[in-house]
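Ligand: zinc ion. Inputs:
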Amino acid sequence: MTTRETGTVRTATSIILLYHRIGMPRPSSLVWGQYVAPPLFRSQLGCLAAEGWEGISLERAITGPSDGRNTFALTFDDAYLSVYEHAFPVLVERGLTATLYVVVDSVGTVNQWDCQRGDCVERIMTLGQIREMADRGFEIGSHTLSHPHLTGLDDDRLRRELVDSKHRLEDLLGREVSSLSYPYGDHDQRVIEAARAAGYRNAVSTVLGTVAAARSTYEIPRINVRWNAIGPLLKRKIRRAVRKTMVVPCQP
Ligand SMILES: [Zn+2]
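Predicted complex:
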């Protein structure tokens, strides 16, 4: 239904969904739009499945050959405790996987990078919880050490944010960390080259688009799913991402 028609050739669409917090929005939060209520999250997965979308890993979405099915991969930035509590069980139940991007210095604490915006009350997963997800086959990626705007850092600090976070996560988890999420989606060519030099195999941004629209494996677009994403907003976003008119799943 959502497969693009190009003459007689059918081209499957692959998208990466970006989530932050799974829970009821806190009215006092300045980033309340980042919350997706648990029933809405379940509903989104149900709609995608009902419309024939296949949930796959990020790695497969980026590198895997298409078998003609539309596919989606799930990513969660910041490693909020609410993702462990409300999304992880649902995903396990449905046999889905996801990539979790961890801010290494904030593991087991709160979202310190949002303090200046008056919103540093969200708990971050503990190392044990992150390990549990990794043991269940979820990919753990780096979201740097401290969640800075990377383009504003000098070369040495940039290298430490990318290299040290990767190595510390690998030491803690005992497995390779090959994916990076740029905090705030902030990146430029210098940051991309630093990510490549640090040994990452891919990096995701916050630019809206499909996987096919990626300019490189270090600029993978995503679709940012927000509090009202089951309705016209998600429909509009997917349409914009694929740049084609199509029937979109998950009608409100
Ligand atoms: Zn973030």
